Amino acid sequence: MDFCLRNKDMTFPISQLDQSVGVAGQPPHDEAEDWTSRHGAELYGIREWGAGYFDVNEAGEVTVVATINGKKISVSLTDIVEGMRERGMEMPVVLRVENLLDDRIRTLNEAFAKAIRDAGYRNVYRGVFPIKVNQQCHVIEEIANFGARFHHGLEAGSKAELLIALSHIQDQESLIICNGYKDSEFIEMGLYAVQMGLKCFFVVETLAEVPIIIERSRTMGVKPLIGVRLKLSTKVDGHWAEDSGDQSLFGLTPSQLIDVVDALKAADMLDSLQLLHTHLGSQIPNIRNIRSGVLEACRYYCSLVEEGAAMGYLDLGGGLAVDYDGTKSSSTHSMNYSISEYCADIVEAVLETLDSNDIPHPVIITESGRATVAYSSLLLFNILDVRQSERVELPKTLPDDTHELIANLKSVLENARVENLQECFNDAVYYRDEIAELFRHGQLGLRERALGDMYHRAVLTKIARLLPAARRVSQELEVLPELLCDIYYGNFSVFQSLPDTWAIDQLLPIMPIRRLDEQPDRQAILADLTCDCDGKIDHFANPNGPLRTLSLHPLVEGEEYHLAVFLVGAYQETLGDLHNLFGDTNVVSVRIHEEGGFEFAREFRGDCIFDVLSYVEYHPQNLLEKFRRTAEKAVQQGQISASVRKSVVDAFSASLNGYTYFER
């Protein structure tokens, strides 16, 4: 990679640039006011998207805030990172805070309990966590252990996930919801669970599953617990809008629902049909969509009761959103409602529909995955190097013999205003191209060509600074901040640790974990270690709207500069791949204590090179033997000595056991 960290940081004279506009879409900062950690918190919007779990202290450090016995306890991320360093945990690291996971489970269950009390609802709430959202063992263990006090269960979408659920759920009031396609072996295991007293529901996704459930139940002599997944017509906003409504990939149509009812009636098993399942979609930003979907689901629930099904459980699936950008709006990466409002709207909609039909209130189930685990995990990584956007010092005056095209560029720079940005851009590009053409034909020298480029870049830089104040911005101007920004190279892989930022343009909050009491003066995008053109992050969540660049500090020699990517607990660890054979990162789980300290509850070493080579069907011992032969051949040819051969073979062997990421 072409790193340029040592470039001279030359800047334009202040008089030549309009300083009245803030950086990268941020509100202007009063230069007369000293920059404090409060400004740092506002710049990155941590108090908007942090949901009370993250903040900035007076020392300019990001803190994790846990509520323990009613007390808010803050711990600095910098202190946690220092603890990792002392324990030999290299960056990058996924940090999990167990207290936050516990608090999300508590918050959801207590909010539903309050909504049920306030509305006079005559049944209970049961939450289930979809294992696919984060399948990591210690995450599932924590959910099962802490969630047991609320009878919080698990949702399994495969045979492997069902085995996880069966080994972790011991409370007979907690639910196991089996979604996905189910073969005989899947159904057999679920029936064994029912036989042992667990509430394990088979949710019928396709008509083909019904005869298998009937046959296995009769053969084993176990009465199954059956649900049906219905495809609703309700459309939702957000990223998954196209997959909602009638175009949903999963669920039964109304006519297929009748076929299931008739098949169960014919088998004298309609009393096993006790659950209706619907799923509007993931990350639903608009509460009106949720309420509409619940009302539609309730109509089908009533119809199944009228058909003679036993019923008793209404599973409304997932959809509870996470406010990734802190806007508290109906934008794709946000939500225009609180958890309390979500719970209250669901309870009221169910009660309103069922009471009017004189039908007993069912157990309400939701499968909130994203909202349960997102806050509890963050990715920490260090910046390895920076390629700085070239900054130049322009001459105060131009020589009398300066070519008129360069003088014209200087005039464009001096006259650029918010009102004429597009015109100035067009002129700057034209003059730059004309200068390049004259240089190609030998009519301008190298120094004149360089000076023209300097003025051209100065014009673009000034335009970029003025963009936030412009009413309308063309597409070619909109990308200027990104084209002119620095590139900060991070010690991580987008594809392994943040796959949604690449695959579905997910916005995640990203910020430095310290120096927030210093004003950042660089604009940057992030590049990972993969040397892939897609291995970058160039869109950033912010309460003022998505940003194309991130405000960062210049590196200080001898000091690590750590960034954190927040809200990564949902899907990011599960979906990662081995692009460039970067494996799983180190993982640390901490638990914050009421006295204010914290402990490293768990530590998991990330993949070594030996591990990832095995995943792609290499046998590391065979590789070592092949390399040993190559080294021995070099000895025989007199290229190296036997003692050097030992050193290189030992180094190869040691590398097999090394971390796949950059190590200082």
Protein architecture, described:
With 664 residues, the protein is α/β, with parallel strands linked by helices. Among the domains are: 1-13 and 390-484, Methane Monooxygenase Hydroxylase, Chain G, domain 1, CATH 1.20.58; 100-116 and 123-336 and 356-376, TIM Barrel, CATH 3.20.20; 621-656, no CATH class. Helix content is 39%, strand content 16%. The model is unreliable at 1-28 (pLDDT under 50).
Q: What is the correct CATH architecture of one domain? A: Alpha-Beta Barrel
Task: Assign the CATH superfamily of one domain.
Answer: Alanine racemase
Helix content: 25-40%
**Beta-strand share of residues:** 15-25%
CATH fold-level topology of one domain:
TIM Barrel
Q: Can you identify the CATH class of one domain?
A: Alpha Beta
Find the structural class using helix and strand composition: alpha/beta
Mean pLDDT: 90
**Overall shape:** globular
The largest sheet is:
10 strands, mixed
Count of DSSP-assigned helices: 23
Radius of gyration, in Å, reads: 30 Å
Uncertain runs: 1-28
Name the features.
single chain; alpha/beta; Methane Monooxygenase Hydroxylase, Chain G, domain 1; TIM Barrel; about 15% strand; disordered N terminus
